[in-house]
Amino acid sequence: MTEANHSELISFDHVSKSFGDFIATQDLSFSLPKGKIIGLIGPSGSGKTTTIRLLTGIYHPSEGRIKVFDKSPSDFTTKEKAKIGYLTQHFTLFPDLSIASNMNFAASMYGQGILRRRKKIDQLLDLVELQEHRNKLAKKISGGMQRRLQLASTLIHDPELLLLDEPTAGIDPILRRKFWDYFEMLRDEGKTLFVTTQYVNEASYCDLVGVLADGKLLELCEPQELRRIAFGGEKLNLRTIDRFTEAQLAELAELDIIKNVRRMDDGTIRILVDHAATALPELMSWLQDRSVPVESLQEYQPPFDDVFVEVVERHLAKEADQDSPDELEPAETEPEDDTMSEEAMTPAEAEPDQASPSEDTAPAHIDEPSTTEEPKNRLSNHPIFEKPDRPASHQPTDEEVSS
Questions:
Q1: One domain for residues 182 and 258
Q2: Which residue from 131, 212, 334, 402 has the highest number of Cβ atoms inside 10 Å of its Cβ?
Q3: By the 8 A CB rule, do 300 and 333 touch?
Q4: Range of the domain at 231
């Protein structure tokens, strides 16, 4: 999971966090290297925000130990806190200040001089596409624009570690992609980004992906490995010029390299193998030997919507049937729709949030033609732990900020 040339930046050692009888996170243990983008995906109430607040020191673990920069977040000095940029889910800047004044204030909190901050503010307002709105009051702009302003203020002091809680929530797809391009640039500069998201397909932009449900970390690995875990291997799509016969389908299923074969509604043959790279040439040779006219044969990357649902659904099923000795088979629902979508240490104070699959060892078999029904997420009824926002003790005026 980590590379030898990347030192450990974050570690959780059997960390749990409870609020009364409610367990927000359960026995989290993992270590993360610096210079990576780490994505944490999960439904609302799964513990993503609680995990980030544990990293900042806002929350203290009920059990276990956390280290960030090789020390407990609760022991951070002011200088060490300045290494972190924390984006909360809720707007924590000053609504009665302009966009530019909010940025000025955030920069001044980190001791940035006037000349340096002007250049940085211009750069960030260009990034979040707020330059032409810089003189508007924060309370007069849309929620999406407030989100973009808050992200810009998070980046103002060039932090080493970015803790971003739903940074692209409420952002249009084009700007969302622009943000991820910028995140990747920061990663390439040596920054570390810990990002939570409910836009599950954003996991493909991350170096490491964690799946969180019911406060439990189900998986933490590279995106491609998560796909392999979810479906028990890698998938290929075969399209032939002539219809692939049932006899050919049955013969194909008998190959040692094939774990599962199914015909999709559009005629595509979906094939599950251990490793696509090694299976492709052998499969092509088999087709050529039988003079099967091939239109295309290529690896199929299931969208992360499917991967996420598969991992979480199987975790829930395993918990529900934990007394049953039967091993769970990988689900084979193949939805065609690729969409499933649903704080910088800023000057204002922050506030709180809230299975591994087993592989079927049975021989390869042929499935019935697929449906296009989208998998259902059974995690929508979990409580979300939230505390009300705490008002800032003093809100500076535009005049105070510019002085």
A1: no
A2: 212
A3: no
A4: 227-299
> Residue 112's pLDDT is what?
84
Query: Does residue 369 lie within any of the structural domains?
Result: no
* Residues lower than pLDDT 70 in the chain: 1-6, 323-403
Cα angle vertex 54, ends 48, 60, to 5°?
Answer: 135
Q: What is the pLDDT of residue 320?
A: 79
- The predicted pLDDT at position 326 comes to 53
Structurally, the chain folds into a number of domains equal to 2
Per-residue exposure over 248-259, b if at least 16 CB sit within 10 Å of its own CB, e if not: beeebbebeebb
Is 201 within 8 Å of 180 (Cβ atoms)?
A: no
CATH number at residue 12: 3.40.50.300
Is residue 158 included in any domain, yes or no?
Answer: yes
The reported pLDDT for the residue numbered 361 is 35
Is residue 345, in this structure, part of any structural domain at all?
A: no
256 touches 246 (CB < 8 A) = no
Say if residue 111 is in the same domain as residue 216. yes
Q: Is 111 exposed, middle or buried (0-12, 13-18, 19+ CB in 10 A)?
A: exposed
The whole-number pLDDT of residue 94 equals: 96
Domain boundary among 246, 264, 299: 299
Q: Hey, what are 208's tokens?
A: 């490491």
What residue type is 1 in one-letter code?
M
Last residue of a domain, one of 202, 221, 240: 221
What type of residue is 348? A
Q: Are 167 and 193 in contact (CB under 8 A)?
A: no
| pLDDT given for residue 319 in this prediction | 80
Q: What is the structure's pLDDT at 344?
A: 37
| Same-domain status, 132 and 237 | no
Whole-number pLDDT of residue 329: 52
- Nearby residues of 121 by Cβ (< 8 Å), 6 or more positions away: 100, 103, 104, 107, 152, 156
Q: Kind and range of the H or E element at 68?
A: strand 63-68
- pLDDT score at 29: 97
Domain-located, residue 27: yes
Residues 107, 189 within the same domain: yes
314's CB contacts (< 8 A; 6+ apart) are 328, 330, 331, 355, 357
